[in-house]
Amino acid sequence: MIESEGRGPGAGAAGPSHDSKPIFIYHITHGEDGRVYVGQTAQPQQRWKQHQRKPPQLLRNDAQRYERLTDGFSFSIVKEVTGGAAAAHAAESAEIQRLRDTGVRVYNRITGDPARSRFFWAWQRERRHGGGRK
């Protein structure tokens, strides 16, 4: 079941805008141990296909055990959010925290706007420079 967030009476009445386009919060769940990766996207089916071709870095160790990602992981949409990137980051963070609070192990290391995280910038630097500072 998809939970909807950020919609109220008259939402989008002024016409379509970038901020009113729904963003979906999703889970990729490891079937063996129940560990969850939480992500966000405006195009869930396309994003799942991208992950199947190249799993998120945090899932790679577990994903390598399977011929296909779908052999060991499932994909589900858990929430629909409107209100733009800030609302999506907040909803994603809340979902990660909700899972942690209920004892579910998550792959995610950061919550909130990735650009505000030191992990994000270290990861970006590593991607650009092939392994860190040079």
From TrEMBL:
Species the sequence originates in: Chlamydomonas reinhardtii (Chlamydomonas smithii)
Pfam families cross-referenced by the UniProt entry: GIY-YIG
Protein name in the entry: GIY-YIG domain-containing protein
GIY-YIG domain span: 21-109
Annotated spans, Disordered: 1-21
InterPro entries found in the cross-reference section: GIY-YIG_endonuc, GIY-YIG_endonuc_sf
